[in-house]
Specification:
By secondary structure, this protein is an alpha+beta fold. It has 2 domains: 125 residues, no CATH class; 78 residues. Strands 1-2-3 form a 3-stranded antiparallel sheet. Strands 4-5-6 form a 3-stranded antiparallel sheet. Helix 1 runs antiparallel to helix 2 and helix 2 crosses helix 6.
Length: 215
Amino acid sequence: MNPGNFNLFKIVELWSEINTTMKQQKIVIAICLCFLSGSDLMAQLEFSGISKPASFSIINEGLPINKIPPVEFIRNYVEINIAEWQKKEEFEKSSDYRIRVTEQTRNQKVQIYTDEAVKAYKIEYAKTINWDVLKLSQYDADNETFLIKSDFIGDFAIPVPIAEAQSLKQNWNQVKFSETDFIILNNNLILSKINIFNPVNEKFYQYDSKKSTVP
């Protein structure tokens, strides 16, 4: 089977539609990139007019990060940086180059650049969120939870002991958000974790998509 026949973006996008964890998606992105030989990858990039390594700022320049699909961002970041890494340096012996650039080392670099891209995307995406517009819904006294509503990142619930609930509601405009994290789902970034601090009673509350909010 000819690796050049694979459409990298379609493979990654298809996987993102049917898997929910970041780890699975990163592995598949790495696998898909490995379908492309060094020459195939270079040819694709040169055809696209890409010749230098990229940071998030020069991929789809001028487009806000929240308008760039995460899979596209990751794919571009990895392809461009791999292309630069595997170039033979001017003062590099051919024997040294063959040792440095192998299928194994390329796969390792793909994973490293994938991790970098995911981290960079999440950091920049979080900067676009206006946390001040998150709204606190009516308290659920039976389950001791608040539902937090957001048009941008979706609704989520946090557990809050009933003895602390009134203080959180009264001082909602003073709370601080931190330790945010996201997962990629259906080629979108979805909130997976956030800490909320009430400075009045100095209490922390956490949303974690992996944990139940029902006591």
